[in-house]
Design a protein that fits this description.
Length: 53
């Protein structure tokens, strides 16, 4: 996130907030993560909470 933030130019704090929300949403629901078997964090948590013991 720090790398992404340092590459951005914001015209004001409102735009910064909007872009940050969008980045967080994409990071958690679209971008696959190698550390969790190619799933998104959202998919990983969804599987975790739907797992029946």
């Amino acid at each position: 996130m720090e790398t992404w933030h340092n590459q951005q130019i914001f015209s004001d704090s409102k735009e910064r907030k909007q872009k940050l929300k969008r980045f967080i949403n994409i990071y958690n629901t679209v971008k696959p993560h190698k550390a969790i078997s190619g799933k998104t964090p959202y998919e990983f948590l969804e599987d975790y909470f739907n797992y029946e013991v």
